[in-house]
């Protein structure tokens, strides 16, 4: 209710602030009987963690995850799985100058007016650091979905500022610091140069990310409100800095005709995927395809106009360690959120219709 | 849980199918003490109802709403408000030919595989007709928000297929059949001609709709998951045929720099609204600005390839009465959904922080 | 959230007031593919309806239920099932004298202070009449549980005021006006006489009711909060006039020793059922046994001290039509509530652990 | 959903097992601006912790609580408050002999059949140790309710096996090891002797506990399902080993007449409190009075019949450290649960009706 839990049947409740002693989450509803250890979760956290290249924040965090509960002898027991990630590199002093002012583009102003009090250290609760527990929970969800249905998740950057990044193959994603699905060395060099230039200028840039889930059974989702695509939009727009979400053809569908947009069916399956794998809020069995827009990082070294708590004009400049493009690290986060949406609907479908064999309509 | 309720504190549970005896909803959580009668709700339903121009479905429905409970002597009592809308123009025979096949772009295929059974009459539960109760509930939400905070809602069409519709003023919206915020007679004539041509061709087209909420107090929303913008994305993507959602600058923020995107503050307020009225998931006090992409209507007279239940190839052609652009009637629906999101957060803010005077931070 | 919905996966949202145009409910989450018509529901409503003997209220209500949605060609579709029950015998004038005062033992005082407004006609929303939709929804739940698991529900009166009613067999329950599980004609005559005497005296009396669910699979329930017995206690205490709930040995367990209370197991099954079919919040596969205490009806003709809205002392006497023992009609209501609790846990178990074969532990 | 969260607006999600590395909880929804430190929580944990007298388990746990988040500079920020309690005295070997059998009266049998896997160390998740985080969360709730409304909580033992414990004053509760509200030295000596005898005999006994909340404003609760008393029944029945719950007159109301039970009102207030402070599911402003029955501890040294996983007969004897009467330590737990119910309804009332001044009906 108070906005710190995600999901209903596979529910993730997160806690922590950027510079408190630890962050973490409690996963309630993970099915019993799945082999699970920290080794299943850590690789996903490592994909997201800071300091992996010169293009992301230089904060030093090992993001070492501990499982506190819910696993016995290496197997999930059906009880809550608590994940704990200690904060190691807390430099509260970096943020000392911002406690009395509101940084443009940040949650400072809104938190202050909502709660009447706020933890300003590193953005407190609104820090992108809080996506780490989500990625941890997402790793658990991904494992279960993979084992049960063969579902796999992929993500990549498609646009960095004004640079379009053509899609070649997801296999290239881990081979460059941008999660770009390309092996085009010239393009990657151009991206690196653009990022270096931004850092020098003390500015930041936005990005567009695509995420895909493959081997999603037909029949996941709800008819009116908890539509699969509505829940995906909710999940994606909830990621820090996201300003837009598309499913399938997205905004391009505005100019399409019905005779062009509606994906025809043949005995071999759907012809095209303008739907993005969702019709009437329910999965079609095709790839779920999602695209998100991420705004430029709000923390920049360029001085900007703002006000202090008393309403007086001030200039604000954000020092400290920041990602010049938060979109870069957004790929594993978006994959995790998509996995959390899907596992919730997978469990819901079991509740509603039992263990239906994929693709086999059944009464009962 | 099963996807037919919207909202937590102001919760709307809908029921009904396109060709059943009635559709309706139960609103649970409307605050007590507000004057309310059918006359407060009917005008919003009239904006959405079919048959108002030649450009929308010719189904004849008065959409006459009855309040069955929750109001005593013209005042809300705090108990559930049930709204009932009888279905008058049910022509089940129009749909007789589609029970064995799956119409491209429709929910037929997914409902069948999810539930193993489906009501094919007029799309059953997946019909856009089910947005009527939502508009009714939205009218109740709008009234309460207006009385408590002065909040107002506006919406308009911004794109019809490939025709851009410049924004002049919301006052023009009710003066044309497209909810266009323009008085440009040439443009409107061009839109009418495009629609007439579509109808002749038996095809359909998409649209882009903008919705805005004004006078939204600062402080509504939650920090991590139930972000105000995430809930808006969920609400909008849940409207039939929506494929994309943007808040504020939306996808344009990808190419923006941080020094351009982050809205500066001065003692007079924010300079610009790239944020769309939401920072860190919480309202800033500025206009909430949302944009949605609506796909072309899937029901078209153009023959299309599909399969029947047994997987055999068939051709499908949809006769009957349909909107050639479902985007036209989407404007009041999107306004209603935005109102439902906001009232829920308004009540939540009272729970969390008490009756905070707008814009005045308070401890307690 | 606002207290008018019951259940999570099989969720029932009720609406209506005692003297409004209609009462009803929306069932969201009924699994698809079950044969269902009004004929499955009406008999349960007939068991609860007023006017069936001289010992219950003489209000004349046919309690004729209509299914408005969620059923197509006699089969549930998985979409919301709306039940509507028109109010036929509304005598608002009977209650005219009570709008300014607070009847002792009634919700008048608390509604007024909570909401600042209340519907006084027949108790408005707090009327026991609002248990009718629950019984309707319970009939749907009972049918599904019976078809899937063979689960059956039974209830009977065990105490009427100071008269103990020994349990002989549930087969006698429908043969007397008290839902007594006995064929003892002398005892039944004594109960009739006691009730006649009470009516003459203008007074009322309490009752104790037992309800049992048989053939409940092992494994339903949750470990910490949504324990099966906790949910049952919640359901039972939520029935109008209930003041106490016991599971299994109940309050008698206080004086038991551990060596006496803990039900031993043998290869043939449990020896005894002090647990009432629940251990650690999860069903054991034995009968679920519940006992509830129902207070005497608050509406009595005996004059009683109260105050009016301004705090002035007044005497209150309640005329109109009332049950001298609301406990009599509580039996089918308690059965319905138990069925609603169980179906929710049945669906939850499917979500958590899949379609586990009853009694067969399984990993996955 | 999966049964490890309590409360909606002040929501507590617990995690951990009896012999895992740590237990704890996440509180989501604590209002911002309240002073809070470990020193506010620890005293309540100390009341519940093991090893405080020879009559409770001798397990040595400091139950030292750490606040991991949600508090900045000693003040709650409105974000989740994570509480962590390390497990210090884990003797897994004590439980080695029980992994293959089901202890009578325990959750072993049901967990195994529900999940197909279980953590047998000290009862795992079903251990009464898991009430510690609840008591911690309850301390936070108590503080807020006390500061906002002056609400206070009291509890005491009323029956120990067959020994009735008359109520003298709550001030005696902390002066004896039983939470008895009496200074009667003879009675207390008799209770000590009874407990010593039980320990010698390797047996256990039940207890009856009363809890009271004072200064609860009128108007908390909901009309139909989330009745205040229903939520209390749910909370109490969810405490380990509870088999019965009463509100106000409880089961005694069965034999009462309406002219006796219904509490009359005078300008000075209610005359009597058979209602237990709740009418129609909503608080009356009187004391909330609750009574619970706690079964005898299931872990006893007396050999008992059971079966192993393969269904073969075995004899089970439980060694290790156990409370011979779990009812003794139940008093602070029951107080905590009552506080958690009340804070949730307090926040809900703010959402529904705004900051209504206590006792002043208001429209709006």
Q: Can you walk me through this structure?
A:
The structure is a homotetramer of 364-residue chains. Chain A has 364 residues and is an alpha+beta fold. Chain A has one domain (5-353): Chorismate synthase AroC (Chorismate synthase, AroC fold, 4-Layer Sandwich), CATH 3.60.150. Helices cover 26% and strands 21% of the residues of chain A. Chain A is built from 7 helices and 18 strands. Chain A has helices spanning 38-48, 108-115, 131-149, 185-201, 228-237, 258-261, 330-353, and strands at residues 5-6, 11-15, 22-28, 66-67, 71-72, 75-76, 81-86, 152-160, 163-164, 207-214, 242-247, 264-266, 269-271, 278-279, 282-283, 288-294, 304-307, 313-316. A 5-stranded antiparallel beta sheet of chain A has the order 1-2-3-7-4, with helices on one face. Chain A has a 5-stranded antiparallel beta sheet with strand order 9-8-10-16-11. In chain A, strands 5-6 form a two-stranded antiparallel sheet. In chain A, helix 5 packs antiparallel against helix 7. The first copy, chain A, is globular, with a radius of gyration of 21 Å. Chain A starts with a strand and ends in an 11-residue tail after the last helix. Residues 357-364 of chain A have low confidence and may be disordered. Chains in contact: A-B, A-C, A-D, B-C, B-D, C-D. At the A-B interface, strand 1, helix 2, helix 5, strand 11 and helix 6 of A face strand 1, helix 2, helix 5, strand 11 and helix 6 of B.
